[in-house]
Specification:
alpha+beta; Double-stranded beta-helix; 9-stranded mixed sheet; 5 helices; 19% helix; globular; binds succinic acid
């Protein structure tokens, strides 16, 4: 990396930046690693086009941000147990992860910090984009009274359709302070939050539905297009994401590393 200049261009008002001029296939200097972490704290989603990563290198880049997670229920690729295959085949109706706004692996304690999704085979587009929503904005745009109410609540995050255990359920504050930037984010999501701690699921539903509608407002969003060999890195403590299901009959293959907060 030394001697090269990174060109960083914003993707949208709400979040995201494209980073050109950085080859992630080779080990980075300490200075470059620190800059990468700072850039993610600033932009929340980073897009690196035209990267050529081995599975080992994909995981190594992830380790800059946390400890790789081996999913107990979903399939890893044969080359590495910490890399999930994110696949939709022409005969599949559903996208990986379902059509929910979510952050990855929030049903563990500690929860995930960052996900790194690497494109292997992207259909001819435009299609299959990933949407992101800035959860600092979601928190900041609530009224002060709602902010202080939510700051007193915790939510129970559960992996769906399995018994609750240490592996599959965790309690997290509804408002989390980001360890890197010190900013407050709304930390609930429609895929994994089952209820507020101490509330029933039925009691929780109206407020959760209101928060889910608020946290995905269009002005909080940015949208990432994909190309083969693109790596997109996002901060699960600060954004939600949503995979578009708009490419019926086509194949879309990516590989994901998710790392957990240290
Ligand atoms: C995911 O939810 O991690 C996958 C996102 C995508 O396929 O765009």
């Amino acid at each position: 990396m030394s001697g090269t200049r990174w060109v960083v261009s914003r993707l949208s008002n709400a979040l995201g930046a494209m980073v050109i001029g950085l080859d992630l296939s080779e080990p980075l200097t300490r200075e470059a690693e620190e800059r990468l972490v700072e850039l993610l704290h600033e932009h929340l989603v980073l897009v690196f086009p035209d990267q050529h990563l081995t599975p080992t290198r994909h995981v190594e880049v992830g380790q800059l941000f946390g400890d790789p997670y081996v999913h107990p229920f979903l399939h890893s690729i044969p080359e590495h147990e910490a890399i999930l295959q994110v696949a939709k085949e022409p005969h599949d109706d559903e996208v990986f992860g379902g059509e929910y706004w979510h952050a990855d692996i929030t049903f563990r304690n500690p929860p995930s910090s960052v996900s790194l999704l690497y494109a292997i085979d992207i259909p001819d587009g435009p299609c299959g984009d990933t949407l992101f929503a800035n959860q600092f904005f979601a928190y900041e745009t609530l009224s002060p009274a709602m902010q202080s109410t939510l700051e007193r609540l915790e939510a129970v995050h559960v992996y769906p359709d399995v018994d609750e255990s240490e592996e599959t359920a965790a309690v997290h504050p509804v408002v989390r302070t980001h360890p890197g930037s010190g900013k407050k984010a709304l930390f609930v999501n429609a895929a994994f939050v089952d209820r507020f701690a101490g509330w029933t699921a039925a009691e929780s539903r109206p407020l959760l539905e209101q928060l889910h509608a608020h946290q995905t407002r269009p002005e909080f969003q940015g949208r990432v297009r994909w190309d083969d060999h693109q790596l997109t890195v996002w901060d699960n403590r600060a954004v939600l994401h949503y995979a578009m299901n708009d490419y019926p009959g086509k194949r879309r293959i990516l590989q994901r590393v998710t790392v957990m907060e240290r």
